[in-house]
Design brief:
Helix content is about 65%, strand content about 0%. The chain has 10 helices and no strands.
Length: about 150
């Protein structure tokens, strides 16, 4: 809509669809934004509309709740997202190739037979220490005792 060359069409869309979502709820950001500039010419309104959209997106990036509210209240937005997922990302083909039951079971019961998942950092450090020929002192430390009185009394 914003790339339309007919200014009247853009202005009509602005007045009909930008201030309110399709479900009738007001888009408070755009309502406040356009109350300040309502007396501008059509060309200026289109400029401010595009500028406002950039600012709106910036707010969405910083606060995902605004995006969720926008998607919830805007049928057109949900349709555009759905169309993008289906036509561009081929989501329907992707989903058709997933065994949902197996996928959910896998997500609920992580398969980690070697317990590597939570020990990646430890394993990496051990590998580096061995590579540089550091000695494992665990056995030596277990055989010795440390006088903790020094730490308690000082």
């Amino acid at each position: 809509m914003l790339n339309n060359s007919d200014e009247e069409t853009i202005i009509s869309h602005l007045k009909k669809s930008i201030h309110k979502f399709e479900n009738g709820q007001e888009n408070i950001f755009f309502k406040k934004y356009f109350e300040k500039i309502n007396d501008k010419s059509n060309t200026e309104l289109i400029y401010y509309l595009k500028k406002g959209i950039v600012e709106y997106i910036d707010k969405i990036v910083k606060n995902k709740d605004i995006l969720h509210k926008h998607i919830k209240n805007s049928i057109a937005t949900r349709l555009r997202i759905s169309r993008y997922l289906i036509e561009n990302l081929k989501a329907d083909e992707f989903i058709a190739n997933i065994d949902i039951r197996a996928f959910l079971n896998f997500k609920q019961n992580p398969v980690d037979t070697k317990s590597i998942h939570g020990k990646f950092g430890t394993n990496k450090i051990e590998h580096i220490l061995k590579e540089f020929q550091f000695v494992n002192l665990n056995n030596l430390v277990k055989e010795k005792s440390i006088n903790t009185d020094f730490f308690v009394n000082n």
